[in-house]
Amino acid sequence: MYEETSTHLGVYCRKLGLTPNTLTALSLVCAGISGYFFWQRSLISGIVFMLLTSLTDMLDGATARAGKMGSPFGGILDHVSDRYGEFFILAGIAISGVVHPAWAIFALFGMLIASYTRAAAESIGNLPTCAVGWMGRLEKFALIMLGALLEWLFPTYNFLAYALIIVGVASVVTSIQRLLFARKALQDRQG
Predict the structure, then answer these.
(1) What is the DSSP letter of 16?
(2) What is the per-residue burial (b if ≥16 Cβ within 10 Å, else e) of 169-183?
(3) How confident is the model over 55-107, as pLDDT tens digits?
(4) Spatial contact of 189 and 172, defined as CB atoms under 8 Å apart
(5) How many CB atoms lie within 10 A of CB 89?
(6) Are 62 and 9 in contact (CB under 8 A)?
(7) Alpha helices in the chain (DSSP H)
(8) What are the C-alpha distances in Å from 60 to residues 20, 67, 94, 142, 179?
(9) Pick from 81, 87, 99: which is nearest to 34 by CA?
(10) Mean of the per-residue pLDDT values for the chain?
(11) Candidates 2.102.10.10, 3.30.70.1350, 1.20.120.1760, 3.30.1390.20; CATH matching 98-191
(12) Whole-prediction pTM value?
């Protein structure tokens, strides 16, 4: 359902002359702007550009599918760009003073290690996919945006810090789930 709906949006992007790599670059720019606004404590602007980051990130894959333009390098570029984008956003939050920097660093570490575990399982373990676990990138971004919105609405309750802690914990658990999944898949393969 998700891929079918997003592929229709990818068709429109192709009609506009947008390529997957252009959308990947746009996603990275939006993440940088989001991080800047979070650094400036402009939480609503940070959320808006985080939403745009997510939208353009979704559209790059949809456009690749719609135009049959997917390539191994495009996939690598997308994954690397996503990690840079996560860094920009969480670094902006960390240096903003809205939360203790340790919580943003913890969330960033968790997101990176979950992603790395998947990449290692798929490349070193030669698994077709290792996209298992509690939370994917979209859910983590949604939780951070919700935490930022609640922080803006109720600044004395530390909602953004709690969101970052949950993202960090869920990401570390996701990494462990992926390790266990990879171990079982590799053991099953060996018979």
Answers:
(1) T
(2) ebbbebbebbeebbe
(3) 999 999 899 888 888 888 998 999 999 999 999 999 999 999 999 999 999 99
(4) no
(5) 32
(6) yes
(7) 2-15, 20-39, 43-66, 72-96, 101-123, 137-153, 159-190
(8) 4, 11, 28, 19, 28
(9) 87
(10) 94
(11) 1.20.120.1760
(12) 0.93
Both tokens of residue 64?
């690749």
User: Which residue ranges make up each domain of the chain?
Assistant: 1-82, 98-191
| Distance between first and last Cα of the chain | 34
Which residues are CB-contacts of 61 (< 8 A; sequence separation ≥ 6)?
6, 10, 20, 78
In order of 48, 76, 122, the CA distances from 152 in angstroms are: 13, 35, 39
Contacts of 23 (CB under 8 A, 6+ apart): 13, 56, 57, 59, 60, 63
